[in-house]
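hey
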């Protein structure tokens, strides 16, 4: 589940899932009497069509690259709407700003964050899932969810090849 490439769909299934998310966002806007403006749809596309964890500033940069634009306030408000819709998940990696990723039915997963280049790598490990349940039960808790973020140096930065 690590980030790869520019975040473009790699298969027909990915493209179909992204299109389903786009339709779901339009339906959410309609159901909540919110206009489906070109800016909102472009912001949704930027987040829904990538496997990266984008900050609001990165979303704005993606829009500019695509020849579109939206004000900072519009980007933030639209990201909030996307989170409320359940299509996007907000992540706080302790960087002083939030990042956003498409929810797309991804199971619970953890993150590795490079302290030098900022690369975010996702991983999932069943042993960790079992261990968090065992730890919770040992302290008389019924585990509902957990979050693990590991900060360190990616292999590229360790070798001195930071991006």
């Amino acid at each position: 589940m690590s980030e790869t490439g520019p975040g473009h769909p790699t298969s027909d299934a990915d493209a179909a899932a992204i299109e389903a998310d786009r339709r779901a966002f339009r339906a959410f806007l309609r159901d909540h009497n919110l206009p489906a403006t070109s800016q909102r749809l472009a912001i949704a596309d930027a987040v829904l069509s990538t496997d990266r964890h984008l900050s609001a500033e990165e979303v704005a940069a993606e829009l500019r690259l695509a020849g579109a634009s939206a004000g900072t306030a519009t980007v933030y408000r639209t990201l909030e709407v996307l989170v409320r819709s359940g299509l996007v998940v907000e992540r706080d990696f302790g960087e002083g700003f939030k990042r956003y990723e498409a929810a797309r039915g991804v199971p619970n997963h953890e993150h590795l964050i490079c302290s030098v280049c900022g690369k975010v790598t996702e991983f999932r490990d069943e042993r960790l899932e079992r261990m968090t349940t065992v730890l919770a039960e040992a302290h008389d808790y019924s585990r509902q969810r957990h979050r693990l973020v590991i900060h360190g140096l990616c292999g590229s930065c360790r070798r001195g090849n930071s991006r």
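Residues 43 and 79 are 8 Å apart (CA to CA). The longest helix spans residues 12-31.
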